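Input sequence (171 aa), recorded before submission:
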Amino acid sequence: LPHSNWVSSVDFSADGTRLLTTDFGGARADRSDAAWRVWAVPSGEPVTPPMTGTTSQFNFGLFSPDGRLVFICDNSGAQMWDWAAGQKVGQKIPGISQGTAVRFSPDGTWFLSVGRSDRTARIWEVPSGALRRKFDFAGGISLSRDGRRLLGAWPDGSVRLVDTGTGQPLM
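Predicted structure, token format:
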């Protein structure tokens, strides 16, 4: 799959028929040539044109569980896109950048972001990007496969299991 810049991330859609790539840009000093793109699998044909529009770089991208949306992160935050329409969806979410881990809930109605620098886990609504819940943590964090529980190391030295829907500790 041709790229004119260093590829920063790749992701398969859940059904395996699409591939998302993001790149850092770099041929231009302002990185305005950074792009993300969706490709057909297995042909490798582009499904979208190169999508640009950042003044930094695209750090990573991933598909929503239903494959309808892509989550694209640059140095100023993250944006959800309806890739087929080429349209932004919801608000730009600041504070999500390189060094942030992101996972969608299994049903795609929210996503979890985990920031290494501020040691905060946040749950955001899809597609609006509204903040639903915030958790402080000290280290490792994991989301259960059904998306209902969050396990993490907290600043007081404990490990806690939390209900993602209510924010209440389960143990």
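Checked by second reader. The CA atoms of residues 32 and 55 lie 5 Å apart.
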